[in-house]
Design goal:
Strand content: 5-15%
Number of domains: 1
Structural class: alpha/beta
CATH superfamily: P-loop containing nucleotide triphosphate hydrolases
Order of helices and strands: EHEEHHHEHHEHEHHHEH
Number of helices: 11
Largest sheet: 7 strands, parallel
CATH topology: Rossmann fold
Number of strands: 7
Distance between the termini: 33 Å
Helix content: 40-55%
Bound molecules: guanosine-5'-triphosphate, magnesium ion
CATH class: Alpha Beta
Radius of gyration: 19 Å
CATH architecture: 3-Layer(aba) Sandwich
Length: 268
């Protein structure tokens, strides 16, 4: 049984930075993980790239040869990956052991998580190759400071969750940039009633019914739960990793004891 994290989320939400910090953390604790680049547009890496989509297809070549722009070019690359998925994965995975732990650093184009089926097919292939897969959805904490941004962030994450049908861990990235932690705390694990009253206060009265439906939807899918991640703190990375590991049953036999991470706790 192999294990995999699919690191997804909007452009610039911190996916690649998370991958490199996770890699460093795992090196420190002498745990082996392999980071895979699935972004055909990526150029610089702060982690050793174990597998690389750019060896299959590169965005620069596609843009030059087909005259496509960056987004159209990226979609072309992902469709090309989809068409060659089985061959590519089979060949690449040949270099790894059956119980290896892979972390896939994905591109940030939101359409990949809403209606384009490539990632879903990708996940199906991984499952067929006996991987336990978890979606790790990163959302920038800067977008969590008011209710309307919170709801739109939840809906974007929800659309990925519905599309991928995977165990799903929501992470609030870049917590080091949040000066007032209290602003964020309200949204970490909020009461639906609190969300609804906040939303009603921010919107014109004619939206009351829609607001209620939105909060119910978000609540029904148990989406209203985000884990804050502060990459400066080892304990924070450790806690996030333990939650993800639980969701894919990694290390179930190991005696892992990690106490809850308190974002207010400044100790390393
Ligand atoms: N302060 C701070 N900045 C961060 C953090 N994570 C990422 N950044 C910055 O946010 C920007 C985007 O980070 P990336 O890791 O490239 O984000 P990404 O999600 O991989 O972006 P795309 O691959 O383009 O979708 C960079 O300038 C990072 O330095 C963090 O935890 N704290
Ligand atoms: Mg990236």
């Amino acid at each position: 049984m192999g294990y995999a994290q699919l690191v997804i989320g909007p452009a610039g939400s911190g996916k690649s930075t998370y991958c490199s910090s996770l890699y460093q953390h795992c090196e420190t604790i002498r745990r082996t993980i392999h980071i895979v680049n699935l972004d055909p547009a990526a150029e610089h890496f702060d982690y050793p790239v174990a597998m690389d989509i750019r060896e299959l297809i590169s965005l620069d070549d596609v843009m030059e040869e087909l005259g496509l722009g960056p987004n159209g070019g990226l979609m072309y690359c992902m469709e090309h990956l989809e068409e060659n998925l089985d061959d590519w994965l089979t060949e690449e995975l040949d270099n790894y052991l059956d119980d290896d732990y892979l972390v896939f650093d994905c591109p940030g184009q939101i359409e990949l998580y809403s209606h384009v089926p490539v990632l879903r097919n990708f996940v199906e292939h991984l499952k067929r190759k006996n991987f336990n897969v978890c979606a790790v959805y990163l959302l920038d904490s800067q977008f969590m400071t008011d209710i309307t941004k919170f709801v739109s962030g939840c809906l974007a994450s929800l659309s990925a969750m519905v599309q991928l049908e995977l165990p799903h861990v929501n992470i609030l990235s870049k917590m080091d940039l949040v000066s007032n932690k209290k602003d964020i705390e309200d949204f970490l694990d909020p009461e639906p009633r609190f969300l609804l009253s906040e939303l009603n206060q921010h919107m014109a009265p004619q939206f009351a019914k829609l607001n209620k439906a939105l909060i119910e939807l978000v609540n029904d899918y148990s989406m209203v739960s985000f884990i804050p991640l502060d990459l400066r703190k080892e304990k924070s990375i450790q806690y996030v990793l333990s939650q993800i590991d639980n969701s894919i049953q990694y290390g179930e036999d190991a005696d892992v004891k990690i106490k809850d991470f308190d974002p207010e706790d400044d100790d390393e």
